Structure formats: C-alpha cells, structure tokens
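Hi there,

I know you've been waiting on this one. I reran it after we fixed the sequence typo, so this is the corrected version. Both the input and the resulting structure follow.
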Amino acid sequence: MKRLRNHLIGIDQGDTVLFSDFEDGGEMWTGRGQRERRRRIAFSEPFRTEPSVHVSISMWDVDTNMPLRADIAAETITADGFDLVFRTWGDTRVARVRAAWMAMGELRQVDDWELY
C-alpha cells in the first residue's frame, strides 16, 4: 500500500490513442509473434514522488477471427511521467487501441526544500 504523507494529493488523467495500424498496414494489424507499442506520457505537472498509475483499454478494434491476446501496463513510472505499454503476441490482429490512465500521488508543497 502506498502511504501519502501530505495533504496535497494530485490526480492527473488522460485518454491516449496508442496506435491505429489498420489504415497503413502496421505490424499490430499485419504482424505475428511478440509485438509492443510504447508511448511516453508526461504528467501535466510533476508529482512530489512517483505516483500510483492505473491504465486500462478504453477502446480496441480487433479481428475476432483470431484469439485475442493483450497486455497493457504502466512502466518506468517517475514523478514526471510514465511509459504506457501495449503488448500482443501470436496471431492476434489489433487494428487500434486507445488507453485511459490515471495517476494519483503527492504534490509538492510551497515550503518543500530541495537541498541537494
């Protein structure tokens, strides 16, 4: 459990199109095997420390004639942002994915000092 140590709590959120491979024959739609898309998300302002980040698929367009395999995650979380990562594998065909995210954590206080 993450314990927040101050009364200034911030919540930032967004909805991001990760890719749309159907129109241009991209690898998520035409490829096979391990595939990954990664996008760096910057918070609207930095948190005091690394926040907790929740991600989910808010829209996906897939070929239902193949097995659906997907993994979505927040990786490399810092006070400034995180990597939004979508992965698929095998013969799954994904035309587009949009992901929603929410970050929650401590904000800096006016009297926070950084000595070093």
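Quick highlight: The helical segments are 27-30.

Best,
R. S.
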